[in-house]
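Please produce the structure of this protein holding guanine.
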Amino acid sequence: MTRFALKGQICYSERLDKITVMENSYLLCEDGICCGVEENLPEGWENAEVKDYGNRLIIPGLVDLHMHAPQYGFCGMGMDMELLEWLDHQVFPEEARYKDLDYAEKGYSIFAENLKKGATTRACIFSSLHVPATELLMEKLEATGLKVMVGKVNMDRNSPDILREESPEASEAATRQWLADIAGRFKRVQPVLTPRFIPSCTDELMERLSRLQKETGLPVQSHLSENLGEIAWVKELCPWSECYGDAYDHFGMFGGEGCSTIMAHCVYSGEQEQELMKERGVWIAHCPTSNADLSSGIAPVRTFLDKGLKVGLGTDVSGGSSDSVFRVMASAIQMSKMYWRLADETKKPLTLEEAFYMATKGGGSFFGKVGSFEPGYELDAVVLDDSALKTPMQLTLRQRLERIVYLSDDRQIFAKFVAGEAV
Ligand code: GUN
Ligand code: FE
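Below is the modeled complex.
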């Protein structure tokens, strides 16, 4: 049994509307699992190692529910297009380069190194359709110590020859090859089935992936209702579908028993789609920076939360122009204010508490008991040093956290733990 405690200024979420704040307290860890936060070391813990972080903040590791590793190279560039044009001109040509393992080596080294440096401890990541590069990405991420999910992308239609699988059979075969290659190879990195989005996947491919999902029980990640042109296209491609979500649900790839699913964006999810997501327990990856950068729109997050839908945050690197989940938290709040001001004044803006919850416990729930410091949670923690952010004011712990979120500066990261292990 390994026990240790992290001492410092501790903030975490138990519920949506509150940040639990514990000053000068001990975060207890036994065999990678959190045993709660105490003001004093409890009896029996006298011999446990105490890492004293003094006045630094300790928060749960941040969870990025949606990002694209092969798009990291153009992070912060090409933001003057909408989704479909951007995919054709920016995304597909760059992802096609990951056929070349030397290029993938360069790109994925940079990606993994930066993910390790930031405040993110868990992430759900799209790779490209290439099997060797996807395996390389998984190796690099395993070495970071982070716990992540990686998906080899499936796409067999409506993309250029350089980035399209030959047939549904070929796409399925490549996916099976990938899963066989990586079986038992990684401790921290898990596979996730990743049909890119409906326009990229023929019905037959969706049927094949669905069978594979039932066989393996693997989780699923994809995109949903991000852009108006995209939604109109899905309606053309699947005229039988009652809503975009129904186009996944039709193939059994939209949550439900044994099929944990993340859908990114949901900007235009209407009542019917929301009900379906609720019924199927689908996680929403809210990606406000991306939705602003690609002029997609503002997702009705207040409505999602009021309805009790499961919501986490995603950077959507690189539709989103930052890999910082802090930045996404600030953006979620800012966008919700514009939604309230310009679209619907009955939908009150998000609070820091709600953004913090979505970035930790909300998204973390996709990984199990992750994203909080309540007893029984896997211990993911980030130690933040804000001493370089000078102010003459006397700040509360909540104010210090708020400032770190809004300044979104990953340089404050002092230490990081994933499932009880220092990275
Ligand atoms: N929809 C299909 N592919 C993509 C992608 O790579 N990024 C985003 N934001 N949306 C998508
Ligand atoms: Fe995306």
